[in-house]
Design goal:
2 copies of one chain form a homodimer. Chain A is of the alpha/beta class. Chain A has 13 helices and 18 strands. In chain A, the strands form 3 sheets. An 8-stranded mixed beta sheet of chain A has the order 3-6-2-1-9-11-12-10, sandwiched between helices. A 6-stranded antiparallel beta sheet of chain A has the order 14-15-13-16-18-17. Chain A has a 4-stranded mixed beta sheet with strand order 5-4-7-8.
Chain lengths: 402, 402
């Protein structure tokens, strides 16, 4: 039998869109993969589409149809990773490192049939294992899989992280490394908050909440997957150096300690008079085929029961909006909404953090449109344009020494 | 059971890259498909990649590797049709015409495993037939298939035509319509020869020779396929109107009648001293893994035995060139070569046409580097830059009333 395989440790590396945005950066990634292989590991590489490819394809689709078929969207969007993975495989072969690329389907990424927002239900990585045994680096298309109906599916934004963690689990990998243009997980987005600090480590639960609150560095479902299987995730910069963040099970910090701030934009706030949240949710569930792609947040705000939809992954908003107007004429729809969140285990154990968060956001110049808390998160709704100032205010006032 | 299927006639329509080059043109195609469906036919649409997508992807690959893995090239290039077919399917659904898109693999296009130049060996269009029975228009990715090893393959340039004809045969279609930006098959490329005329009909054999000599309007393998299965091909302009050309079995024209002129550029002429053509061919066959993608023409020229490679579909030329220098040091390599050809059944039955062709090309200002004839074709090799003048001269002197 060929070399490799057997007792050799497997490393899964995931490179995001900005890491493979052009031919030069694909070369940098190839060098890093080649070095890992040369250090004696078996390497599986998960790649996203190049740069803004996915957004560009989505924009084309929206020019053709305001409510494109989700099944066809998946066919369209899954083209992006084919391009990046084939190019990376060529770059490795060019460096004398045998490599082969596989689509999600070829890699055995089996998903639900919820197009544009599928979940991985099983990984059958037989072809990946065969090629590792043949001594090859295996490049896998992130973000995509195949349903039991043999249809191409995608996993929603950030889904390449989930592909990487799921493969790491299925292959019993030594580590899952997530490379991006940021060197780890920070207490806030450093482009918004220059004094943000890198976290040396963070628990699965905190990371999951940060991701769900809008931090882009890791996908929330990926973290959940890693938590369930006990896989440590190493978040690093593609350029190397500058440290890393390890996401793993670890003793909780002091309760109420805030580890980070995250934010979201592109939200739509739906409001009904107090007491009718159930009606609103039921109406959305009836319109499920269109709304299912959008993440739903439920808020209790000062102006009555309300519900927040994220436009991200919601590919039929104009049609949904029309249906809402027809079927739920009492609803008020506020577009251009954002949310800022502070995250930390036990964050709402006392009223202190909640009161402080509302005060800080208010003083930053925003009207608070809604507020929601959980034991890991305090989230405030506000006008989209006020998000950066509110993030800076929350970070300054709540994030202490870690 | 749903409507459609059963006795309803099936039309296969193929749209080339320029017909789906942008969102507006995809809309035009959708209108035409919708009209065909509304006329009571079952419609299968084969699409190429949008505009210059395939060439752009190839250029990316060549920046990464002068000799890219053919298997990875196929993975890369097959992304192009996914994009165009998904967008066309969305455009049809937007028009209220139910549609679904399938990859080559999903459509059952089974091919040989000769990556970048695979041949269709079987079509198993079960999913296509199921969806036609469901009343849907089926959009199929042209140019691609899947090998028995479950690897993605592509069919070489113009392969979408072959996909269309092969599907028409497998589905027992009423007609196979090939749409492009030209209204049928002309006696020469009208951009080069303004007085070129459309042929109302042409035999399979003549069309195949025209295509092999460089006419882009139809792919040679597609015509061969149609000939074997007796399928009539209708070549039309996507914009409609302006007539068509029918390719089918029909009584031969008067022997020696020239029906058209075609040309190729991007050729490389390999020459060895007289008597060593066998050695040259054997050396190329030894280097087969790289040369197989390139069409090979064998010429006997005034300067000895020679062989012509087309750089089209030849994805590893720098490596091949290097190997030739090492393994066949006596070979002379001339790049920047073109070929002009006159086509007609029985064209070389007398010396008249051959002598006239050589005289006309010479008088147009080109040195004739080589000459080859068959019962359907006279081809002359010349410097690439001289091709347009030579085409005009041959057309003026040889193509008579039809």
């Amino acid at each position: 039998m060929p070399e490799g395989g057997g007792g050799v440790a497997i490393i899964v590396q995931k490179y995001g869109g900005s890491s493979v945005a052009d031919v030069e950066r694909i070369g940098t990634v190839a060098d890093r993969v080649a070095a890992t292989k040369a250090a004696g590991r078996d390497v599986v590489v998960v790649v996203s589409a190049m740069g803004d490819t996915t957004d560009e394809l989505l924009a084309l689709a929206r020019r053709i149809s305001p409510n494109p078929s989700r099944r066809e969207l998946d066919m369209l969007l899954s083209a992006g990773e084919r391009i990046s993975m084939a190019l990376l495989s060529m770059a490795l072969n060019e460096r004398g490192v045998p490599a082969v690329s596989f689509t999600g389907s070829q890699s055995g990424i089996m998903t639900s049939d919820a197009h544009t927002n599928a979940r991985i239900v099983e990984v059958r990585p037989f072809r990946v294992q065969d090629e590792l045994r043949n001594g090859r680096v295996v490049i896998v298309a992130g973000y995509q899989g195949v349903s039991y109906k043999r249809e191409v599916t995608t996993l929603g934004r950030g889904g390449s992280d989930t592909t990487a963690v799921a493969l790491a689990a299925a292959l019993d990998a030594e580590a899952c490394e997530i490379y991006s243009d940021v060197a780890g997980v920070f207490t806030a987005d450093p482009r918004v908050v220059p004094e943000a600090r890198r976290l040396a480590e963070i628990s699965y639960e905190e990371m999951q909440e940060l991701a769900e609150a809008g931090a882009r560095v890791l996908n929330a479902q990926a973290v959940e997957f890693a938590k369930d299987r006990g896989i440590a995730i190493y978040a690093r910069a593609t350029t190397g150096g500058d440290g890393e963040t390890v996401v793993r099970r670890h003793p909780p910090r002091a309760p109420g300690r805030v580890v980070g701030v995250a934010s979201e934009t592109g939200l739509v706030l739906l409001r009904l008079p107090r007491g009718e949240l159930g009606e609103l949710v039921a109406a959305l569930e009836r319109l499920d085929s269109r709304a299912a792609g959008g993440k739903q947040l439920r808020f209790d705000g000062p102006l009555g029961a309300s519900l927040v939809l994220s436009l991200e992954n919601l590919h039929g908003y104009p049609a949904l909006r029309h249906d809402l107007d027809v079927h739920l004429p009492g609803v008020s729809v506020v577009e251009g909404v954002g949310a800022v969140s502070a995250i930390g285990a036990g964050i709402n154990a006392s009223f202190h953090n909640v009161r402080e968060a509302a005060r800080l956001v208010g003083e930053s110049g925003a009207d608070v449109l809604g507020l929601a808390t959980s034991s890991f998160r305090i989230s405030l709704l506000l006008e989209e344009a006020r998000v950066p100032d509110a993030v800076r205010a929350l970070h300054r006032g709540l994030v202490g020494e870690l």
